[in-house]
């Protein structure tokens, strides 16, 4: 075990999926059922997270409604009925002052010019708090909203994502940081030798540029990436400032952590500048009994049909009805959607020898959810952090607002007392709070590009 | 002349292009030079417009930097360095409560699914205050950011725009207004027979849908359109809630007004539900001398090279250097960019027998700018409104914040005393304030679609 260096800081993102990550969260008596489009409620959640000094808010995204069984679909909320994340975070930028704002956006179904501009705009609006969670999208339902019959093939998506990222970061550097002189006397608004045309001609994109917005406060918004496949890890090591990941246990997390840091170093990057944040889902009570009661009341709200359909969805839209519910998960081909999600599920089934029914229930409950006391959760965080399984966590909230309130009010004070977590924001930008340097422009003279 | 009906309401949009519409506005001593990316300043402007009860804020857009002569480009600000409009308006949605929020977005370089979602999201965020200014984009600099060598041909752009609009409005109707039950007891989140898949297969787009957001507070965000060509007018009469237009004089405005209302009626629409708003640019002083002094001080800030380059730009990127500055505008072919802008300029040159130099100076100054007293501006507004040259105006501000402050503090009180303009917001949504009905969903049973 490597001893934690004194300078390491614990980082926490609030992964918000109102009314909660659990599929039946909206049925909880304290839930706000229309949370996905209720801006007053979201401002409350954002301010709670900011008072608790989370590094950032983090919103997932899909560009379609997965058309599973309608009988099931009508019983769930998950991302089918919520604000578009970049407009949501822009709205939250004027209702908050210090917390980071990370939105998910797809490289498979966007144009790099629009995406570069949207996130640069969000970084200006928030005065340096924007982050982009780069995803390659999930499924056929999304493809069919963009003129395609089926989802783009996995390796092809990643090739496109790498070029997309190259174009986006190039566009972010269009104007040098000191390009704008605003010299009212001479009439020179900006120095034209500090404006750069990209002239990108690649396999997937042809983009002349420049981007029509000044370089943003962070230079470049923070880039988050979550791929766990071989291709996904390579991309993360090459381009990600933050890696969002999920693991069945601490040993797997440590192996991933070592691997990503080594890959980053091999790519010529400082491993400390790739912040690894596994998922952490918690239900906290003042006593263990209280925590378990909360979990039991929540889980009782879930219709078993929904759990089964959710499992089939994450396995890539397979039909599980042909297999006995109390039998093992059959051998299934990897589909074209997120392979890391599929692999995690299959590994879990094998490792624990679960039936389909048990697997579905466990997935819905996120059976890695820690149901514990504040001390118990703090112990888990400290152990993973100090043994380098994590630089911090993407904290997932099974139901809102309660599990966020509990984390903020009960867990974070423990982390602060142990000296693990900040008691005030040290930085003004998200990069500063994450301990990341401000990247130099690719056009910066006499300096290495970042 | 048709007598004004009692029920007609004057409508005013604040067309904001910080630091001002005039090319040298940023050099004005009271200007905020970095206004394009200064959110605090923009919140101030938005709140001034809201206190004055403007119907809406209105932001133009380009998806590129027109690469004119660098010598010229570096002396101007115009849309090269500002927030992306939908994220900007999302940010302003939480800093305002009643004013409408209209953003420009291109049908030529966007995907309808993204655009439908972004504006539905903005309508939810603002609780019913969103508007989309549908444009087909302007020039080659934009095309080259999206993999094309040159701007899409004019008629082709409009065919695509019509289909794009059809897809967007269809997606906005994906969920019926009463689809979401949020019934915690039964576990039914929404009624699945109130969710509609679009299944659009057209010439330009193939979009399955549904859109992953509930139908928005206005049913559909307000659609603004500004085409003045034959094709542009047809599209406006068919689909626009608000028509933004520009005319050399009241007679031309009246002819356009009558034409658009007749076209709307012919298309089976209520002509009152197409709100015609010509541009109105003003510089106001308490006395005529004060107004003229303000204008002179502003115009003195403009470098003549910038004025000439701007003329060449609006004529579609022509090279005017081959022609004598003090000679007439030569016969030039219509380029592929906005034809109505080109026609307006050519008509102005012919009507007034202007030289190239005079035309350039007049265009930069917007020589239809009314330099007058508050009474003089109010007289103009009243005459155009009562003689049905206009249902109101898109008010353009030569330099900010001063011409907005002057309009709000000096002109609007006159309009209110004359009973022409509201003293408080009557409606909660932009549609209500514009006197427009809430459109029925295309899937509404037993009712005509809107």
TrEMBL record, chains A, B:
NCBIfam families: FMN_nitrolo. The gene is yxeK5. The lineage of its organism: Bacteria, Bacillati, Actinomycetota, Actinomycetes, Frankiales. FMN binds at residues 61, 104, 154, 158, 228-229. Belongs to the NtaA/SnaA/DszA monooxygenase family. Gene3D superfamilies: Luciferase-like domain. Keywords: Flavoprotein, FMN, Monooxygenase, Oxidoreductase. It comes from the Bacteria. Residues 26-387 form the Luciferase-like domain. This is Putative monooxygenase YxeK. One of its GO terms (molecular function) is oxidoreductase activity, acting on paired donors, with incorporation or reduction of molecular oxygen. InterPro entries: Diverse_substr_monoxygenases, Luciferase-like_dom, Luciferase-like_sf, NTA_MOA. Transmembrane segments: none annotated. Pfam families: Bac_luciferase. SUPFAM superfamilies: Bacterial luciferase-like.
